[in-house]
Specification:
Largest sheet: 8 strands, parallel, barrel
Number of helices: 15
Shape: globular
Distance between the termini: 21 Å
């Protein structure tokens, strides 16, 4: 695997990491149709835990089979596949070495009323299964946020010590946040920054809206306004800025079901704002495979065209 100058530059941002961790980051960045560009599209399939099997897979029954998701990610030419322990175990041998995997090591479920997650996997599981990284969710704003951050701190230290990368899902939730607040620009940037401060190599957040939620933040943004706040690219640029001025990789979730045109517009905004890509689950695996592959191909081509026109 010969690294591109862009990937070498990205690896240089992670000054404290050992060769094993940098090698696993390189595996993700060099994989698939976007390999070497610094852009990524990742397939996450943790929705069975989060929403239940029928809500996740009934729209496309083939997706009940964990092997389907490996195949979808590989056939689409994605950078990585992220899933909880059982999903990766179900295809680990058949697909060993075919695509970098990210073991999601904590999970919630829709039967719970608390904004918390249980630890459901380990660093040793990730090593045993040949994963490139662990994935961990934190809920900034939750009553349990500090415990989650402490759990992440311990698992990230262990993962890095054995050469694994760390991906952090940073989703603001809690009693002081309503639905508007969860994706408001100031809150989204704050959550992304927290993930960077906690040592994440790759940060996953939701695309931000133009809302400013915190009263204290409104005063700051009035004095130092975000350029192009009404444009997705401008908001993405601000979140990237919050991730150590772009020196940490940040990808954006696909959200709930959207049209192909909306997904393509989001990909263009992410690239133009300096984001590193998309992590798209339900918007792909809930469709028939042919439709999912076509959508993913269009998104990848959008990133490739934008990268060629605006090399980062």
């Amino acid at each position: 695997m010969q690294l591109t100058p862009k990937v070498r530059e990205i690896l240089s941002w992670y000054e404290s990491d050992n060769p094993g961790t940098k090698g696993n980051l390189a595996r993700i960045l060099m994989q698939g149709r976007l390999g070497g560009t610094g852009r990524m599209v990742i397939l996450p399939v943790d929705q069975g835990f989060e929403h239940g099997p029928a809500r996740s897979f009934a729209p496309n029954p083939a997706a009940y089979d964990p092997r389907y998701h490996f195949e979808l990610a590989i056939e689409a030419g994605l950078n990585a596949y992220a899933a909880p322990l059982g999903m990766i175990e179900a295809g680990a041998s058949t697909f060993a070495g075919a695509i970098p995997t990210i073991l999601k090591v904590n999970s919630s479920n829709s039967l719970s009323t608390t904004k918390d997650q249980a630890v459901t996997g380990s660093v040793s599981d990730a090593l045993r299964l040949g994963c490139s990284a662990i994935g961990f969710t934190i809920y900034p704003g939750s009553e349990y946020q500090f415990e989650m951050m402490e759990e992440l701190r311990e698992m990230a230290e262990e993962a890095k010590s054995v050469g694994l990368a760390v991906v952090v899902w940073s989703y603001p939730r809690g009693p002081m946040l309503d639905k508007v607040g969860e994706t408001a620009l100031d809150i989204c940037a704050y959550a992304a920054h927290m993930a960077a401060l906690l040592g994440a190599h790759i940060i996953k957040v939701k695309p931000p809206t133009e809302a400013i939620f915190l009263d204290a933040a409104k005063k700051t943004y009035e004095k130092s306004p975000v350029p192009d706040i009404n444009d997705l690219a401008g908001r993405i640029r601000h979140v990237v800025q919050a991730c150590f001025n772009g020196r940490r990789l940040v990808v954006f979730s696909g959200g709930e079901a959207g049209t192909n045109e909306a997904m393509m517009a989001m990909a263009r905004g992410i690239h133009q704002g300096g984001g590193n890509g998309s992590i798209i689950g339900r918007n792909t695996f809930q469709r028939p495979k042919a439709e999912a592959l076509a959508l993913l191909s269009d998104i990848i081509e959008t990133y490739k065209a934008e990268a060629a026109a605006n090399p980062a």
